[in-house]
Design a protein that fits this description.
Blueprint: H1 6-48, H2 51-55, H3 60-81, H4 87-106, H5 109-121, H6 129-134, E1 142-147, E2 151-156, E3 164-170, E4 173-180
Antiparallel strand pairs: 1-2, 2-3, 3-4
Length: about 190
Amino acid sequence: MPISPRPALRRASVAVASLAAVPVLAFGSWYAASPRLTLNAMQSAALSGDVSGFSDHVDYPALRQSLKSELRARITAEADAAPRNSLKALGLAMAIGFVEPLVDSSVSPEAVGLVIASFGQGNPLAGSPALESLSLLATPDLSIRREGLDRFHVTVEGSANAPELLFQRDGWSWRLSGVDLDPLAPAPVPAA
């Protein structure tokens, strides 16, 4: 009796299907785990004082631009709510001019190094809201919210008004690219 080629064909089909499933499973695993792995790497670098390791996960130009937009929007909203011809309105109008140099000087690897140094001391961070928002990375209970394949948001779990850190995919890794200081408010329009 001749041997049927069907079992060999079936084995070949199973082998091809298995090989095709490997990249799909690998991508799915990466997609599910990579944001948490990035946060763990950033937390580990921050707690061990590794500024370079932490900075590998930060897109400083994009982060600075995001913070400038956030701060301008906050100051503009405060100025619009202030009584006309008041000292508060004058002060807020002048504050707009300080946003750019403040953010440029406080969002740098050196400034982030100072923030990282304060993590181990338990000192509350004072000063720039940008640097204060980075301190949430030292919190163990972080919540990740996906926004498509290229973005995710991180905030403290169970906190409705905590700032959100925004991460953007860069190749096969993730980089901190923005901060939403008031996630419940409408998104600010970026300044040109």
